[in-house]
Amino acid sequence: MTDPLTTGATIGILGGGQLGRMLSVAAARLGFKTCVFEPGGDCPTSHVANYHFQASYDDADALRKFAAAVDVVTYEFENIPTAALDILEGLVPVRPGRKALKISQDRLTEKAFLTDLGLKTAPFAAVDDTVDLAEAMAEIGLPAILKTRRFGYDGKGQARIMSEGDAAQALTDMAGQEAILEGFVAFTHEVSVIGARNTAGDVACYDPGENVHKDGILHTTTVPARLTTAQRTDAVLLTAQILNKLDYVGVMGVELFVTAQGLLVNEIAPRVHNSGHWTQQGCTIDQFEQHIRAVAGWPLGDGSRYADVVMENLIGADMERVPEIAKEPGTALHLYGKAEAKPGRKMGHVNRIIRG
Amino acid sequence: MTDPLTTGATIGILGGGQLGRMLSVAAARLGFKTCVFEPGGDCPTSHVANYHFQASYDDADALRKFAAAVDVVTYEFENIPTAALDILEGLVPVRPGRKALKISQDRLTEKAFLTDLGLKTAPFAAVDDTVDLAEAMAEIGLPAILKTRRFGYDGKGQARIMSEGDAAQALTDMAGQEAILEGFVAFTHEVSVIGARNTAGDVACYDPGENVHKDGILHTTTVPARLTTAQRTDAVLLTAQILNKLDYVGVMGVELFVTAQGLLVNEIAPRVHNSGHWTQQGCTIDQFEQHIRAVAGWPLGDGSRYADVVMENLIGADMERVPEIAKEPGTALHLYGKAEAKPGRKMGHVNRIIRG
Description:
CATH topology of the largest domain in chain A: D-amino Acid Aminotransferase, Chain A, domain 1
Helix content of chain A: 25-40%
Domain ATP-grasp (chains A, B): 111-296
Radius of gyration of chain A: 20 Å
CATH architecture of the largest domain in chain A: 2-Layer Sandwich
Number of strands of chain A: 17
Order of helices and strands of chain A: EHEEHEHHHEHEEHEEEEEHEEHHEHEE
Shape of chain A: globular
Largest interface: A-B, 50 and 50 residues
InterPro entries (chains A, B): ATP-grasp, ATP-grasp_carboxylate-amine, ATP_grasp_subdomain_1, PreATP-grasp_dom_sf, PurK, PurK_C, PurT/PurK_preATP-grasp, Rudment_hybrid_motif
Protein name (chains A, B): N5-carboxyaminoimidazole ribonucleotide synthase
Distance between the termini of chain A: 40 Å
CATH class of the largest domain in chain A: Alpha Beta
Oligomer: homodimer
Subunit structure (chains A, B): Homodimer.
Organism (chains A, B): Roseovarius gahaiensis
């Protein structure tokens, strides 16, 4: 596929959560149909997608049918099984490509990639066993945080080591998975850049947002972030560097720690990102449409920020506040249509707009 | 239904065109599922709706199943067969209600309703035959325009009478349908107000837009419209008067002629309206979400205008310009996913934004 997709083309989306839902709506806005591949039934994306392949990621036959039904495949989460990608890649373009997935699926590979690029990260070391962990603690110092190399998100698969006495339990918490020890970083705040790159190699970045987490889950993103002009430029340039190095096509989230020594890269996500939801009310073209434009071979859209926005996630019981939020002026609600409001579950978000 | 609908409730939409499509997306944004009833197969709304009842409007069984599957019914066009409404109304709330539909389905009833309210319209008279037409021409004067009382839209079912010699052909053009003769109005420009009223009786109106037509189809809507402060106030007040008189629930489009004698009401549409598409880029809550909020028993959202916008319809071959439009800064494309770009067919629209 080298020509831009036109009206009526179908975009395949792996994963049926809220990110897939908002990607699907953005694709429809540009005249595309969408087809979601998701093992779950009544999922947020299926409500708005044109087709739903309800099958397991190890169902090779379903994957082949899915590939035949779509013109390009993208995804809303990075932990897609390798075997599924092997099948799809041979049949249809997958965007963003394998390189970005490979790196972001493994915290160790990701950190190594970033430091090879000359970017700063927290100090880190691979940990497979007790000996590794002792050496890593000696090298990095405490406090530190032990994380599984793969499949961790929203604080899952992580254990803090405040003193040497915590080490054994932390290793047990990894449940035999390969891990990485990361040193604590003295940062003042976290920001993230939502960057995009299209098939022509054009790069565009949204204004960085400032993130606050609660219980390991993103709580709010505020734009503009507290950054000097130099930091803002650095943040955007390093994002472009990452995108270009990966021949990336699509939208990427880059989380950064702001420290006295400059910006440290915390992690990258090869997909639209929760910290970019503010773009729905702050820009002409939001991160979801930007991603669809990129993977469809279109020119990138105008993502310049025209308003100050505070995005707040609605988690679990926060849904009880919806009737009140619905009355607020200058406020846009985005609900994901999930049936049950369990604790820790992302149910929606709200963008509060302060026009710039 | 008196309580507001909550996440997971299903909104039924009669009609599967672009208005239904954008209503469906707005409903999803608030966590609702949507179910479209539309005889056609691959229709714009079905691409984004959760369910599609593909059946005829005279299929009573399908209508009953549809009613059972949804919590409220709304519609994207006013010419819904009366028998279909009779079935639905007994089973599920239909919003906006029957009163508004009855009036807007018949140009004569509509004009009579408006003049009863004390509002100005073009001079009009009922025309069923040659005798009526001669009398009406004598009363109203020429030039005038003969229109079918029912089922006309986008310039269809209309014939201009410039001189008496055109009268016979104009009547033939009505193909035996009841008609109405309307006098020409000397207006400087046309504006429209998109108003909303919810189940609590709250009314909110968007800033009026100024409309330009081409070949009988809306070409552009520009906000702000050229209106004096007094005219702007009049436009909003008369819209509120119409909404209240009809116990209306939902969004309505009110087309107005600006004349030396004040504002004349051209016609009302009991649904979201093409001239309100600019709200997608000019307001926090657009006309589609406003309509969904109203029919779902929610509070109305913040529809204050924060930008100057020019909306342009993309008709037929205008689709060839999409690749160029996609590159424009400050421009949002909205395509409807229609397979074929026939002449006169609305394929999409573009909102060009000049931040206020």
